[in-house]
Amino acid sequence: MKFNTVTIKDIAKALGLSTSTVSRALRGGYEISEETKKIVLEYAEKINYRPNPIALSLKERRSHSIGVVVSEIANNFFSQAINGVESVAYNRDYHVIITQSHERFDREVMNVEHLASRSVDGLLISLSSESSDISYLKSLHDKGLPMVFFDRITEEIHTHRVIADNLKGSFEATEYLISLGHKRIAHITNASHLSITRERLEGYKAALQRYQLPFNEDYVKHGKSQGIEQEEIDQAIRELFELPEPPEAIFIAQDKLSLFCLMAIKKLAPAHLEDIAIAGFTNANVVDLFSPSITAVRQPAFDMGKTATELLLQLIESKRPVEEFQTKVFNTELIFTNSHRISG
Q: Which SMART domains match (predicted)?
């Protein structure tokens, strides 16, 4: 059964008016009498008339919609960031179209091209683990499509960026593990080319250096470019605990990795459950229920999504070309757990 929407022509036919008269009355045109406006508006309300968004977008050359491209909505950080996006967009009468790349470059390209073909007014993007080539985004940006990057960003496109202070957050997490008395600290992280991976590895290294602890490549495990799977983390945990000197603590660089890491330890290194200390980036609201527990590095995801949207709408609604761009950096917060305070 085909869904038929009510059009201006339907209203005009029902009221015995011309379509141009109905259109002007709905817009509040000064050339239409108050009596006619009243008749048209009351009838439109009675039949629940809504303007056709496609027709409006063709007329105004704007769709009043923005596209959001993230790796995975199930990721706690992204779900909270999207809430921030929507809190701004809907209050400004913009629709939000959310897509997931599932850490795949081809899926990301397909999503972006679909959104662009639907004439979204702008894009909010957090790159997938596979996205080392962003020439397709450069092409769209050069053609005038506004875009703002958040969390996983690129320096290759001159636009606004919204990030957390990844270096500081990872430094503080690693420093905390050192304060518990641990000297052998492993680091499990994502694809090496991602901006968040580089910054969090840098913070980890800086903390080791500050406390004169050696950096050991054997303690660092990168995820594959196509995204992290449980089997991959299982292998990483197996390799770490088969080392002659296995780690005493682990710093984890991403939300999804934290859960996979806990599951792997329980399965493959249960003897270490009581003494291993873990800190990592996670925005999970139930982090206190994790076992072994995690000292969490939490990002202000809602505020990051909100700010990214405000910056994007500034680009969209600017009457003149924007030439100065900002990189907004948000502080992270270290959330402690009691069990870690006695680990050392």
A: HTH_LACI
